[in-house]
């Protein structure tokens, strides 16, 4: 039977809208008014009011009466904490905090979702000059140290490369411009054990990353150290690369073997 014209299950649209509100508030990292939520998600005011109201009933979204805006509620916090426990991230957090304390730099754990790298955990640098980021941030795999580390140890790397346009969309003037350049860099990443983002994702920020591997050597996640370019000369890269590799090996002990792998 051909199901190409089949309608989505009843309620799918409502679920997508609710998830859209939650993701928007997560990515915003603060509060938004109903009108702002409606505008950003291209919803009508009435639909937005109903969706936000339903999420508020279960505490996933909360209302600030002083600003008349909405933010993620206690229910979302509890859900996130439960997910961290299930995925082993609660035990991985001290690892990246230690790397952060030892290096003074920001440290992430990221996973792959399709063609993007998504930040799950972050230990922020306390130094005055730093790159601000938050869990939930997502970027193209080919522009990031996390993405390149994971691609270098993925079974579908050839299919991923083939899916890219010949000229890669640039996020900065340093972004790799061709598939062939990316393929060569992935080979170099496998050979040296860690990846490098040389201001390819954010101007003024260099990163090194290492894949968190399973027993078959496939990437499950990545540990990334982010540094302002002025604090990361070429001679410091091997030192931080080795630190990222060691942290990734430690994190691998805590992630369940069937989580986060993209085959």
Using brief descriptors, characterize the structure shown:
263 residues; DNA-binding; Beta-Lactamase; transcription; WH-like_DNA-bd_sf; two-stranded antiparallel sheet; Arc Repressor Mutant, subunit A; six-stranded antiparallel beta sheet; globular; 42% helix; alpha+beta; 9 helices
SSE layout and pairings?
Blueprint lengths: L11 H17 L5 H8 L3 H13 L3 E4 L4 E4 L1 H13 L2 H15 L2 E8 L2 E8 L14 E3 L4 H7 L5 H7 L15 H14 L2 E4 L6 E9 L5 E10 L8 H16 L11
Antiparallel strand pairs: 1-2, 3-4, 3-8, 4-5, 6-7, 7-8
Helix pairs in contact: 1-3, 2-3, 5-9
Question: What this model shows, in words?
Answer:
- It is a single chain.
- With 263 residues, this protein is α+β, with helices and mostly antiparallel strands.
- The protein folds into 2 domains: 12-77, Winged helix-like DNA-binding domain superfamily/Winged helix DNA-binding domain (Arc Repressor Mutant, subunit A, Orthogonal Bundle), CATH 1.10.10.10; 87-252, GAF domain (Beta-Lactamase, 2-Layer Sandwich), CATH 3.30.450.40.
- The chain has 9 helices and 8 strands.
- The chain has helices at 12-28, 34-41, 45-57, 74-86, 89-103, 145-151, 157-163, 179-192, 237-252; strands at 61-64, 69-72, 106-113, 116-123, 138-140, 195-198, 205-213, 219-228.
- Strands 5-4-3-8-7-6 form a 6-stranded antiparallel β-sheet. It has a two-stranded antiparallel ribbon with strand order 1-2.
- The longest helix is centred in the first third of the chain and has 17 residues, at 12-28.
- The protein is globular, with a radius of gyration of 20 Å.
- The two termini are 28 Å apart.
- Mean pLDDT is 88; it is low at 1-8.
């Amino acid at each position: 039977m051909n199901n190409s014209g089949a309608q989505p299950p009843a309620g799918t649209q409502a679920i997508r809208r609710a998830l859209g509100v939650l993701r928007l508030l997560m990515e915003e990292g603060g509060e938004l008014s109903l009108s702002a939520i409606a505008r950003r998600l291209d919803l009508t005011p009435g639909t937005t009011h109903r969706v936000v109201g339903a999420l508020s009933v279960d505490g996933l979204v909360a209302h600030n009466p002083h600003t008349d805006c909405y933010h993620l509620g206690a229910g979302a916090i509890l859900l996130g904490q439960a997910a961290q426990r299930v995925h082993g991230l609660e035990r991985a957090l001290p690892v990246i905090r230690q790397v952060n304390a030892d290096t003074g730099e920001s440290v992430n754990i990221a996973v792959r979702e399709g063609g993007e790298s998504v930040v799950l955990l972050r230990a922020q640098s306390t130094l005055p000059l730093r790159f601000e980021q938050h869990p939930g941030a997502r970027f193209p795999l080919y522009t990031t140290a996390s993405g390149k580390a994971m691609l270098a140890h993925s079974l579908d790397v050839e299919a991923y490369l083939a899916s890219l346009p010949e000229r890669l969309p640039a996020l900065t003037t340093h972004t790799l411009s061709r598939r062939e350049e990316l393929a060569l860099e992935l080979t170099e990443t496998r050979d040296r054990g860690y990846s490098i983002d040389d201001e390819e994702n954010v101007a003024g920020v260099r990163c090194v990353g290492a894949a968190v591997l399973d027993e078959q050597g496939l990437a499950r996640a990545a540990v990334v150290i982010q540094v302002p370019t002025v604090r990361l000369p070429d001679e410091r890269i091997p030192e931080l690369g080795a630190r990222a590799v060691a942290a990734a090996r430690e994190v691998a002990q805590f992630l369940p073997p069937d989580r986060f792998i993209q085959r």
